[in-house]
Specification:
Oligomer: single chain
Helix content: 25-40%
Strand order of the largest sheet: 1-2-3
Order of helices and strands: HEHEEH
Number of strands: 3
Length: about 100
């Protein structure tokens, strides 16, 4: 099977994020089960490109990031600013907003 470097980099960053959260948070989970934590969305306006399927999930979750008993969810995004598709944008903010 062919695996893109973007996917490999994304997976590595997800694992690294979980490893860094491990010593300071409780119940750190990679790709947590959506039915366990995430409420279904309905009539919610999300940015273009958002995944709204019932099987959508975040990359990492952990308890105690912001508050001791609260679960936080993280979506890891790999952003390659020098990519040819970003050359027409003049600032990092504009590049990021297009993705």
């Amino acid at each position: 099977a062919v695996v893109s470097t973007q996917s490999t980099g994304h997976n590595s960053l997800c694992k690294l994020t979980a490893e860094l959260l491990g010593p300071i948070c409780k119940d750190v989970v990679l790709e947590p089960c959506h039915t366990c934590y995430i409420l279904p969305i309905s009539n919610t306006v999300l940015p273009p490109g958002s995944i709204t399927a019932d099987n959508a999930r975040c990359d990492v979750s952990a308890v105690g990031v912001w508050n001791p008993l609260e679960r936080a969810f993280f979506d890891v995004i790999v952003f390659h600013a020098p990519a040819p598709s970003n050359r027409r944008h003049t600032t990092i903010a504009r590049m990021y907003n297009q993705h």
